[in-house]
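Deliverable D5.2: sample structural annotation.
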Amino acid sequence: MSQDTLIAELSNICPAGVHQNVSLAQISRWRIGGIADVIVEPSSLDELCRLRSFIAQKGLSSIVIGDTSNLLFADEGLRAICIRMGRKMSSISISGDTVMAQAGIWVPHFARRLMQAGLTGAEHTCGIPGTLGGLICMNGGSQRKGIGSAVVSVTAVDPEGRVFTLDRDACLFGYRQSVFQGNGAVVAASKLLFNRAPKPESIRREMLSILRERSRKFPRKQPNCGSVFKSNPEMYADIGPPGAAIEKLGLKNYRIGDALISPCHANFFVNAGKASADDMLRLILYVRDTVCAATGYRMEPEIRYVTLGGQVISIHNAAPPGSFLKYPRYSKRLANGKS
């Protein structure tokens, strides 16, 4: 299929939703990445189903993104069809304590709408930059909470374009995990249940407190993707969170190229100018191995790497040859000076 034919077919499925030769650095929260051949934004569940069905029938490569939190795009760009779940699918309706929301709604707006309705339980999400679909996929949240606890059901579309619905138990929510990280489905919408606050003003106060704390602790003026490494409960109890472990090793302000460990928070890596994906990869892997050498814990990145062909892979598997040092493995007991 020629590129012109492909664009015509995609435009027939998603009118006004097809964009060619898009700079990933312009849409990436890290401001990193090459040129994407085509990005398609469906505006309805029907369009999403038809789009996924077409891609499957033609045997084309594709990737699904939201607000690009937790993604690092390759410097070479993206040759696969990129499906973007965003503002065209961002409706929300609230009836009593039940919320119906599409996957493309921006999370801070979602939290604000619940606050205005007097519903509590989403305050912890108010400062998270991303879409609801991504939040559900990652069971994201803050203050060691996850959105999964409020989910009643999730409507999703499988790779062949078929719609299905899972209840909360079937979503297999865990700490920063869900079934949607491995089943190839796209979250389209969700039904959620929240509690009505006895004093609605308390919701606003809590959200303002969270936002002030985030402004104090986290870099806001430089491109970043939030926390780079996941918190490991065992490591947390033994050493502390990833940011504390990185800071104790004196790595704040450490940089490779224009990829910089933020002086505000050591688990936030920022683009200090014109950082490349290779810069950021090298920095992440250097920090991972340095912390492992010192503590015995191999931290797991929250960030995923998007290859030229559209594969979303672990940062562990994305390193260019020779880009990071190899350290001997230390046991946790030896690393902490225990006998």
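Annotation notes: The mean pLDDT is 90. The radius of gyration is 21 Å.
The annotation will be released with the project's public dataset once the embargo ends.
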